[in-house]
Amino acid sequence: MKKNRILIVDDDASILMVLQGLLEDKGLDVVTATDGKSGAKLLSERANDAPFDIAFLDINMPKKDGLTVLTEMREGGCGTSIIIMTAESTMENTLEAMRRGAFDYITKPFDLDEVEILVERALENTLLKSELTALKERLRERVESETAFIGRSRKIQSVFKTVGRIADQDVTALILGESGTGKELLAKLIYSNSPRSEAPFIAVNTAAIPADLMESELFGYEKGAFTGASERRKGKFELADGGTLFLDEIGDMSLDLQASLLRAIQEREFYRVGGRDPVRVNVRIIAATNRDLDTEVTEKRFREDLYFRLNVIKIVLPPLRERKGDIQLLADYFLHSFSGEMGIAEKCLSKGALKELEGYHWPGNVRELENVLRRAVLLTSTEVLTPGDLMLPKDGVREKNLSDIITDKISGFIDKTPSEGDQELYDTFMPIMEKPLISLVLKKAACNQVHAAKLLGINRNTLRKKIKELSIDLKALSDD
User: Fold this and answer.
1) Tell me: the pLDDT tens digits for 239-268?
2) In this predicted model, what pLDDT tens digit does every residue of 207-227 receive, in sequence order?
3) Are 268 and 280 in contact (CB under 8 A)?
4) With contact defined as beta carbons under 8 Å apart, do 151 and 318 qualify?
5) CA distance 34 to 11
6) Judging by beta carbons within 10 Å of its beta carbon (0-12, 13-18, 19+), is residue 446 exposed, middle or buried?
7) Cα Rg, the chain, nearest whole Å
8) What angle is formed at CA 64 by the lines to CA 39 and CA 47, rounded to 5 degrees?
9) Residues in the chain with pLDDT < 70?
10) Three-class secondary structure of residue 396 per DSSP
11) What is the pLDDT of residue 151?
12) Which residues lie closer than 8 Å to 273 by C-beta, 6 or more apart?
């Protein structure tokens, strides 16, 4: 076990001798210096390699005084617990030493028992700072992982652009998307890139809390407000003061509570259950739902005024089946995370397993992908995951893409066609496939042939030729 390191800087030889003897008897590693410049050099040189745990600095010393050394060390990021020593016990010296970041202040002549207690406290402080640094690093890693939103597809990059535009702006955001698409993760991404990132992020799943408890959950309650309310309790709004409140599954909230929520958002104040005095808060609201709120408003299940209040910035998260180019990225991220989480060798996907993942419909979206891979990692002893290891649901859930549908149709036709070579299948099928494609694109382009040719990726003359060859009726398309 390493010895704790102590630096004593004083131009009084008797002080150096007494303190050095006392601390070395306690098993501490002691280094001394006789002027401020030498002391500052020792502190700086050892700041990164074998830093001192404690430094005793006299105020009045040759070449550089103790307060100047203290200031330089704190400005340089030195984490040593610095104790100022002086024979002049004045209020000004004490206040100035503490203001500049001293751990403590001791007056000469000092009691040796007092020095021992002070050293014990300072060493405990050093240990706590070390633990706090490690805790901050773990929290930083956790926040980074919680806010890691993976994706390079065009749709997800569009989402990132919106987040970049609004993160610094203190506006309300509404996140729409199917279950499992990562709505809370996106809310945390907005929060972590906002000026409120050092303040609380409070998440409430409004669908998971019974309606009769939701009001007290959001707004808190006073002591005696109802049976069992033995003390005042803050609600989520109050806990999020200065930070961000994330209201998940907002579309499931009852109409009565929607009215209370609307008032709290508009007025930035509310009443605790059983309270008489308003409570003012400053929170940023981010809401999310998997419901179609336009439909909910039309059918009177969601208040129109609350919808308008929440829908300042709307972000629609695409389902995983619409961003399949991200599946490999997501899978690699999860497999790497599971390796560290479970303490096992990192596993990878075979080409067949990746193809299986990319062909699946993913009704549970990214959350389902994570669970499928976690299960495969837990139940598989080999380092390469195969299609069988994934245990995906069979027929009926797997999505048929356009290629699958066309293949099925052509296969059925070919099976019924004689095998003679004069059937000219290519010449038969190509017009059948081209005509609906070109017709649909023309209709989308309002029969603007320049626009349609651009969408199809062909030149205008080629398009005119195809319209004539395939007998496409432009007038009929315009009338539809």
Assistant:
1) 999 999 999 999 999 888 899 999 999 999
2) 888 877 888 999 999 998 888
3) yes
4) no
5) 4
6) exposed
7) 35
8) 30
9) 1-2, 89-90, 128-148, 395-428, 479-480
10) coil
11) 85
12) 215, 216, 219, 220, 221, 222, 225, 226, 229
Domain boundaries, the chain: 5-135, 155-318, 321-390, 422-479
For position 139, what pLDDT does the model report? 43
Per-residue tokens: 33: 């210096």
The distance from CA 214 to its chain's CA centroid, rounded to whole angstroms, is 26
C-alpha distances in Å from residue 2, one per residue of 5, 50, 91, 133:
9, 10, 38, 19
Q: Report the alpha-carbon distance of residue 408 to residue 402 in Å, rounded.
A: 10
End-to-end Cα spacing for the chain: 85
At 152-204, the pLDDT tens digits run 888 998 999 999 999 999 999 999 999 999 999 999 999 999 999 999 999 99
Q: Residue 109: is the preceding peptide bond cis (ω within 30°)?
A: yes
Q: Which fold has domain 5-135?
A: Rossmann fold (3.40.50)
Contact 233, 274 (CB under 8 A): no
> What's 321-390's CATH class?
mainly alpha
Q: What is the per-residue DSSP string for 98-109? A: HHTT-SEEEESS
CA distance 204 to 38: 57
Structure tokens at 71: 């200031």
CATH says 155-318 is which class? alpha beta
Residue 197 is classified by DSSP as T
Rounded CA separation 33/46 (Å): 14
Point out which residues pair with 219 in neighbouring strands.
Answer: none
Same fold, 5-135 and 155-318: yes
Q: Which residues contact 49 (CB under 8 A, 6 or more apart)?
A: none
Tokens of 43: 């502190």
Q: Token pair 């002549």 is at which residue?
A: 109
The pLDDT value given to residue 277: 92
At the fourth CATH level, the homologous superfamily of domain 422-479 is Homeodomain-like (1.10.10.60)
Fill in the amino acid letter for 216: S
Quote the CA–CA distance of 474 and 424 in Å, as a whole number.
Answer: 29
